[in-house]
Amino acid sequence: MYKADIAAKLDAVIRRVPNFPKPGVLFYDITSILADPESFRLVIDAMDQRYQKDDFDAVAAIEARGFVFAAPFAVHRGLPLILIRKAGKLPGETISQKISLEYGEDELHVHLTDVPENGRVLLVDDLIATGGTLSGAASLIRKAGGEVSDLFGVVGLPFLNYSDKLQDLEITTLVDYLGE
Ligand SMILES: O=P(O)(O)OC[C@H]1O[C@H](OP(=O)(O)OP(=O)(O)O)[C@H](O)[C@@H]1O
Ligand SMILES: Nc1ncnc2[nH]cnc12
């Protein structure tokens, strides 16, 4: 399926959510994709198609909604799944990275032993807004010894200028909103 057709299908489903962004409410939500098996499969198939030629060593997913899309893709491709979690959630030895968000700050952690040394990692999240989360997650993976090759988000909000923070990284989104 063409990128424009995928975007149109996903947009139609995302718009089903109550309170779909309107002036003053700009929170974009992916739960309606998950509630529609055909759309959920469309996302995973689109990821598979997009990364058909890529030879990753692992997929890293960002808590919480990034987990949902990364997991089926990792199983489908037979790749290790790395969970990047918020502070205080991982019991083993972790390394951490502070991140700056639209409103405030947070901290991401990963188990050191999960990241393959010099391994090529695909980072997955549900949505890219300012890019602060993915930028921090990329730094975290690098600190742990991995290499980040690609970033994936189901939804992109380019009006928040995420590409400024994600230079030198290949970014793929399936549907973009311009914030109107
Ligand atoms: O590009 P950014 O400006 O960094 O924003 C994007 C991040 O914000 C949301 O996560 P949130 O922090 O709401 O966490 P959640 O997935 O646990 O709900 C979203 O799932 C991304 O991870
Ligand atoms: N505008 C937004 N909509 C949904 N999730 C987000 N995470 C950060 N900004 C967001």
From TrEMBL:
Pathway(s) where this gene product acts = Purine metabolism; AMP biosynthesis via salvage pathway; AMP from adenine: step 1/1
GO CC entries: cytoplasm
Please give the biological process terms from Gene Ontology that the record holds: adenine salvage; AMP salvage; purine ribonucleoside salvage
How it assembles, according to the record, is: Homodimer.
Keyword annotations for this protein? Cytoplasm, Glycosyltransferase, Purine salvage, Transferase
Q: So what does this one do?
A: Catalyzes a salvage reaction resulting in the formation of AMP, that is energically less costly than de novo synthesis.
Q: What is this protein called?
A: Adenine phosphoribosyltransferase
**MF terms (GO), sorted A to Z:** adenine phosphoribosyltransferase activity
Report the EC number(s), separated by commas if there are several: 2.4.2.7
The reaction(s) annotated as catalysed by this protein in its Swiss-Prot or TrEMBL entry are: AMP + diphosphate = 5-phospho-alpha-D-ribose 1-diphosphate + adenine
Q: Tell me the enzyme class.
A: transferase
- Organism lineage string: Bacteria, Pseudomonadati, Spirochaetota, Spirochaetia, Spirochaetales
Q: Where in the cell is it found?
A: Cytoplasm
Family listed: Belongs to the purine/pyrimidine phosphoribosyltransferase family.
Q: Which PANTHER family match?
A: ADENINE PHOSPHORIBOSYLTRANSFERASE, PHOSPHORIBOSYLTRANSFERASE DOMAIN-CONTAINING PROTEIN
Annotated Phosphoribosyltransferase domain ranges read 31-147
One Pfam family from the record: Pribosyltran
